[in-house]
Amino acid sequence: MDAPTLLALWNEGWNSGLWAGAWSKTVETLTAQQAAWKPATQRKSIWQIIEHMIFWREVILRRAAGETGPADDEIARRNFPEPSAVTDGAFRLLLDRFKASQDAIAAHLGKSGPATDKIPYVIAHDAYHMGQIAYLRAMQNLAPLE
After folding, report:
1. Burial status of residue 83 (CB atoms within 10 A of its CB: 0-12, 13-18, 19 or more)
2. Pick from 29, 58, 47, 56: which is nearest to 90 by CA?
3. Residue among 5, 12, 11, 18 at smallest CA distance from 130
4. What is the mean pLDDT of the chain?
5. CA 128, CA 114: separation in Å to the nearest integer?
6. Sign of CA dihedral 123, 125, 126, 132
């Protein structure tokens, strides 16, 4: 798939949604407590899913810059971490990082290289997780996205 098509899909996911609501709108109105809520202790929260998405977006960008993938200890720390403080300020910072990772992938799409080939997988990965987030919203009786 060419970079302009990938960029169009990437931006569409964020701005209007691919198969469901826009990724940006799915998370922007949440409170920290809603984002940190879990349906059961062994399950993941919206907060953790967003952290996970950011982490793997950053990994793709690092690989595009010629770096190696994450070591096991980094994966253990950064893949679905629990929030250190459940505050609206901390959640807003997370959303800022989420948007920054969105913009960084979009900027990268104008370049070629081995990591560009992984962008279709990131789109599918993120669309999957946004579906999880939409379902976690529904489980909390939050308004559906339009």
Report:
1. middle
2. 47
3. 18
4. 91
5. 23
6. positive
- Find all residues with CB under 8 Å of 144, minimum gap 6, and list them: 21, 137, 138
Instruction: Please name the residue that has the structure tokens 């919203």.
Output: 137
- For residue 15, what is the enclosing H or E element? helix 3-15
DSSP secondary structure, 62-102, as one string: HHHTTPPPPPHHHHHHHSSPPPS---HHHHHHHHHHHHHHH
What is the structure's pLDDT at 112? 61
Rounded CA-CA distance 115/11 in Å is 18
pTM for the model stands at 0.93
* Two structure tokens written together for 64: 């595009």
- The pLDDT tens digits for 60-105 are 999 888 889 999 999 999 999 999 999 999 999 999 999 999 999 9
- Please tell me which residue, 47 or 120, carries the higher pLDDT value: 47
